[in-house]
Amino acid sequence: MRTVLLITAAAMVIVAHAADAPQVPQVPHYALDQSKSTLAFSFVQAGAQNQGRFTRFPVNFDFSPDNLAAGHLEVVVEMGSLDTGDQERDDTLRGADMFAVTKFPQSHFTATQFAKTATGFEAVGKLTLRGVTRDARVPFSFRTATENGMTVGYMNGKTSIKRLDYGVGQGDWKSTEWVGADVGVSFALRLTAH
Amino acid sequence: MAILNTKRRWGAVSQLLHWLIVALIIVQVTLASMADDLPSGMKKLSLLARHKSVGITILMLAILRLLWRWMNPTPALPQTLRSWEQSLARLTHVLLYVLLFAMPLSGWTMSSARGFPVSWFGFFQLPDLVPKNKSLYEALLMTHSTLAWVLGAVVALHVAAALKHHFMLKDDVLRRMLPFTNTTQGPKT
């Protein structure tokens, strides 16, 4: 009888926890403060470093350094919002041979695995760019602050991707002679807790 | 042929610099006019990248040339020239030197204003001379192409004068800038 009660109690506890877990978020949820955030890229064009950025890239981030297992990151980049400061080059980048924004208007980075590193954290997930999805690891730093009574998170980092892995560069642009294969990506995000 | 200039004749270094720059200017005009006809794309990008690298090369050679000119005697103009002809000759040469600097510098500044940094054949990247500025870029584009036409006109005058000296005046003004010709006799009388 006693054993049965114990087992029943234990089962109830397990069931209660299992039911609770998805309903009560264990970690804060952050959304992007677009006006105070940057997502930039750099590339070698004809031997010289050039820069560009995206101006619309919604981010949703569930994260607490104390509970990495509950972390979830979703970044959607509106590819049409790219800006290299040159209309002609932007049009080329939006075109079919490069980002093909009509066919692939968004790129995604989704991560559900997070790890602590010597300098910060690492998000392990999948990057979808120009319709190609590949595993990607993005190192980042994260700190929170209280501003006007509101919790904000600052997320910074940089990584590098090989554009041809995602088919960015068709036809002539497959050559890396005039536009380099490696594209640097850096971000400085201001996130507000909701 | 002597390495250094003499009062009579251009030395090997001066001749090499002169003819090398002539060849590179022909390359520049060719690259620019090929690029002008193309829509934006890889081909245009590569032609203009080479145009910029060759332009920077000309700038470096022009600096060497000016230094070399200061370190060497300059062969004298023929005595037979009238004073206005001497002035015109000097003015033409000054203009040619000014343009050898103005062309690459306006091109480099124009690239900076456009926001496309210049690289020298991919070996090193040059600093931007001005921050990105669209209206400055447009003004410099106009300047660069106007100067190209001015250079064309001054070169035409320079070539016409050299040919006149050679075929009509029959002096050694052209020959003294040519290798493998004998000018030790001086002007024919």
Helix content of chain B: 55-70%
- Our estimate of the beta-strand percent of chain B is under 5%
Main sheet overview of chain B: 2 strands, antiparallel
* Rg on CA atoms of chain B, Å: 19 Å
Helix percentage range of chain A: 10-25%
Total helical elements of chain A: 2
Strand fraction of chain A: over 45%
Beta strand count of chain B: 2
Q: What general outline of chain A do the C-alpha atoms trace?
A: elongated
The whole-number mean of residue pLDDT values of chain B reads: 92
Uncertain regions spanning at least 5 consecutive residues of chain A: none
Text of the CATH class of chain A: Mainly Beta
Tell me the number of strands of chain A. Answer: 11
Strand order of the largest sheet of chain A: 1-4-5-7-8-9-10-11
Fold and architecture overview:
The complex is a heterodimer of chains A (194) and B (189). The relative contact order of chain A is 0.17. Chain A has helices at residues 2-23, 87-94; strands spanning 29-32, 38-45, 48-54, 59-62, 72-78, 82-83, 106-116, 121-129, 132-147, 150-162, 182-193. With 194 residues, chain A is an alpha+beta fold. An eight-stranded antiparallel β-barrel of chain A has the order 1-4-5-7-8-9-10-11. The termini of chain A are far apart. The longest helix of chain A is centred in the first third of the chain and has 22 residues, at 2-23. Chain A has one domain: Lipocalin (Beta Barrel). Chain B is mainly α and 189 residues long. Chain B contains four helices and two strands. In chain B, strands 1-2 form a two-stranded antiparallel sheet. In chain B, a hairpin with a 3-residue loop joins strand 1 (119-120) and strand 2. In chain B, helix 2 crosses helix 3 (83-114) and helix 3 (83-114) packs antiparallel against helix 4 (134-168). The longest helix of chain B is centred in the last third of the chain and has 35 residues, at 134-168. Residues 185-189 of chain B have low confidence and may be disordered. Classes of the chains: A alpha+beta (194), B mainly alpha (189). Chain A binds chain B through residues 45-50, 84-86, 88-89, 91-92, 172-173, 175, 177-179, and chain B through 40-43, 45-46, 48-49, 52, 114-123, 125-126, 132.
